[in-house]
Structures are given as structure tokens and as C-alpha cells.
């Protein structure tokens, strides 16, 4: 991400890029993997509720930049890459709960797969429900089946992508710029869903590094 974040962080859904910097890429990668493994191992060995609560709400207090500096440049099919994308997904939901819930709900209305069941949001899904879903998915990384949490995140992304595409079709005649923005967002969400699925598969195989 090229913009410097300040607390509270505000950003658009298009800002899903790496921070720029002059640090040694090998050192950045090493720190990202070491901190991700250390954090996850510590919490999952002793998943105390108050600690998990603080981790889930960490970016509310410290901003998404605190997480981005550690993990945003990691390979998307890695443990730090997965953690970063889940935190970023939650931050975007909380920033615009109304908009994200609308797109997600539209996706569930059009879905012909079991994604609504896998994602697990309360239906109908409004701002409160989509915010709760994002918290549940992040919490699932620390308490519960890590791969299932990733599967839920992937389903969320696929449904939101479907909603974006549908709304883009609706607004294309009158707001082509908005339609283009939604189409780009849909593609990014679809790609992120694929990355979550890959991470879940690697976790189940014991090879998510």
C-alpha cells in the first residue's frame, strides 16, 4: 500500500497492495513468518478468551498499519499472508459495514452454491451481522479450526464478489465509473478467495509456512 495509514485508518477496497520500503526483502519475509508462527502458536496453545478478544480488536485500537507493517508483503499463500488478509477483510467490513453487507447479501441471493452456509452469516445479513461474521472468522484463526476459518473467509469473498458483479451490471448504464470500480473489486475478492482456499489446503496438509 502506497498511502501512509493513520489511526483510525480509512482506505478503499482497491488498496490491497504491499507497503513500499527499502528494507531487505529476505529480512522482511523472515520477520513476517517468525511473528506469525509465534503469535499463532502462543494463542492456540492457550486460547484464553481475553487474549483472543484483544487480538480480534487489535486493529481497532492500533490501526491496520500495525499489522500491515509485519505481514502485508508476505506471499498470499503463507501463514502471514493469510493472517494479513483476514485482518484486512475485517477492517474493510468495519469501515463500511452497510456497503459490505449489501454486496454480501446480494451475493447470497444469487448464489447457487453452499457458500452462504459455509460463510455462516445470520440471514438476512445487515451491518451488524456482517460485522459479527468478520469477527467470528478472525476469532476462528485463534480458537477453533484454522482451515475452517479460511474456508469461511473464502466463501465470504466469493459471495461479495458475486454481489459486486451483480450491482456493477445494474449501475453500468448510469454510472460506468462505479461499475468499473465494482468489477475490479469483484476480481480482487475472487482472487483473495482462491488464496484463502489454497491456504486452507496447505494448513490441512501441515505445510502452511
TrEMBL record:
Region of interest called Disordered, as start-end residue ranges on this chain: 1-24
GO CC annotation terms, alphabetical: DNA-directed RNA polymerase complex
Keywords: DNA-directed RNA polymerase, Transcription
Name of protein: DNA-directed RNA polymerase subunit beta
Source species of the chain: Lacisediminihabitans profunda
Taxonomic lineage from the root: Bacteria, Bacillati, Actinomycetota, Actinomycetes, Micrococcales
Amino acid at each position: 500500500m502506497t498511502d501512509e495509514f493513520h489511526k483510525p485508518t480509512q482506505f478503499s477496497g482497491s488498496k490491497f497492495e504491499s507497503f513500499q520500503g527499502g528494507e531487505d526483502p529476505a529480512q522482511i519475509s523472515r520477520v513476517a513468518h517468525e511473528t506469525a508462527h509465534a503469535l499463532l502458536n502462543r494463542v492456540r496453545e492457550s486460547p484464553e478468551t481475553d487474549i483472543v478478544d484483544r487480538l480480534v480488536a487489535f486493529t481497532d485500537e492500533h490501526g491496520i498499519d500495525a499489522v500491515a507493517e509485519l505481514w502485508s508483503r508476505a506471499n498470499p499463500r503463507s501463514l502471514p499472508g493469510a493472517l494479513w488478509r483476514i485482518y484486512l477483510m475485517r477492517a474493510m467490513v468495519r469501515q463500511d459495514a452497510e456497503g459490505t453487507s449489501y454486496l454480501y447479501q446480494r451475493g447470497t441471493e444469487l448464489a447457487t452454491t453452499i457458500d452462504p452456509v459455509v460463510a455462516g452469516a445470520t440471514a438476512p445479513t445487515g451491518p451488524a451481522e456482517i460485522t459479527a461474521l468478520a469477527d467470528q472468522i478472525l476469532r476462528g484463526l485463534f480458537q477453533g479450526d484454522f482451515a475452517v476459518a479460511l474456508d469461511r473467509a473464502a466463501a465470504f469473498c466469493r459471495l461479495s464478489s458475486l454481489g459486486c458483479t451483480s450491482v456493477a451490471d445494474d449501475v453500468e448504464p448510469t454510472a460506468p465509473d462505479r461499475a468499473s470500480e465494482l468489477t475490479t473489486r469483484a476480481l480482487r475478492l475472487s482472487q483473495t478467495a482462491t488464496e484463502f482456499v489454497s491456504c486452507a489446503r496447505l494448513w490441512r496438509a501441515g505445510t502452511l509456512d
